[in-house]
Write a structure and sequence with these properties.
With about 280 residues, the chain is an alpha/beta fold. The chain has ten helices and nine strands. The strands form two sheets. A seven-stranded parallel β-sheet has the order 1-2-3-4-7-8-9. A two-stranded antiparallel ribbon has the order 5-6.
Length: about 280
Amino acid sequence: MLKIDGHTHTELCPHGGHESTRAMVERAIELGFDEYWITEHAPMPKDFVQRFAGPADDWQTEGLSWEQVDDYLNLAEQLQSEYADQIKISIGFEIEYLAGFEETTHAFLDQYGKKTQHNILSVHYLQDDQGKFWGIDYSTDELQAGFADELKPPQLLYQRYLKTVLASARCDLGGFGPDRLCHLSLIKKYQDYFGLPEAFDQSCQRLIDEIMATACKRQLSLDFNSAGFYKKYCNDFYPGSQIVLAALKAGVPLIFGSDAHSVDEVGRGWHGMKNFLKVLDTLKR
């Protein structure tokens, strides 16, 4: 198994630790990684604010500013070239799936995609019944403000989230579109705070199976994201065992991602994924 950290961020990330990306690459080399994928958050659509109902600091700190895109690509390309004989670095964006903004996202990837090797796709925002967007991982207050009614029967919130993920998996974003679905159980980031159920119910499982079938058909991989282990109210990896089992059953590849936003987070949890998959393989025998 190649040792890949396939989901990392940079010093330019507005909600990160602003630590040196060079130091992060050198940490990956120190840990013996074969590949290191830099996947910074793409800018939010310029008119997204008109459809957003949460706190301004959420969307303002979600991704790069439009003025930073070239700086990010120049930084990543410099490191890619400089460390080429020590580690394979891939460059990409973490793309946000936002219903109604598909054309804007497609145009962004058409413009900048030629400079990328791997782009990844995430859902950090859900629409309420009025079509307004709310962040699901920025704060407990925002999640409750947007979806208080669905937090009471939380499987309804899970369904809303998984339906959005399914739409993202089906979305054609062009020749430079993302090739991996990220942290598919992000909706559980605050599971311990709200007392959310660990298991998805049967309705959710059907959606999960449909997501995996779509991912297999479209040759998308799945982010095995260790960041959730270290979140105060999550304490589990994304996407969790239920979705991992569905992915393996459907033949969807898993790629480790630390989702590092600082040096100490690079590669964090790698052995957890490796050993988890080893146990599953043993049980199958």
